[in-house]
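Researcher: I've been going back and forth with a colleague about how ComE operon protein 2 might be arranged in three dimensions. Neither of us has a model we trust, so I'd like an independent prediction. The organism is Enterococcus termitis, in case that matters for your notes. Sequence below.
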Amino acid sequence: MTLERIPWDQYFMAQSVLLSLRSTCTRLEVGATIVRDKRIIAGGYNGSVSGDVHCIDDGCYVVDGHCVRTIHAEMNAILQCAKFGIPTDGAEIYVTHFPCLQCTKMILQAGIKKIHYLKDYRNDQYALALIEQVGASVDQVTLSKKYFAELQLGEELASIDEAPQTDQ
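Model: Here is an independent structure prediction for ComE operon protein 2. You can compare it with whatever you and your colleague have in mind.
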């Protein structure tokens, strides 16, 4: 019996969805995965600066309609590459939501050539124009239930609600 393997775009997007579960933002949970040559080189989720309080603990710090406490998932992933000296030129990024204008500019400036996103979210027309202008591309990924509906995770999830919380 030959099993059909999950396509790469869905595999990497699923990683971003998983990362979004670590988000500390109460307004929107976002995850991002940076990939080069079909290998994950970084991941990020939206949340506070390391060492600062989290929105889930102290509420959002909103100025002009935006939470200024939160670093976006895309920025966290790119900053992880910068911190560890990992080049992003020619890479791709998988994001659970369409990137905001500032993140789009940062993604393009980092040399990332393809943006994959799962959900539309305030898709900015200027961001779309910039992507086209610099020769990058964008595409929306659809996750197929057939790859996720039959996950066999075994007994380790039978008592998932009883598992102690560790390593926040």
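Researcher: What would you highlight for our discussion?
Model: I'd start with this: The CA atoms of residues 69 and 98 lie 20 Å apart. After that, consider the following. The chain has one domain: 10-146.
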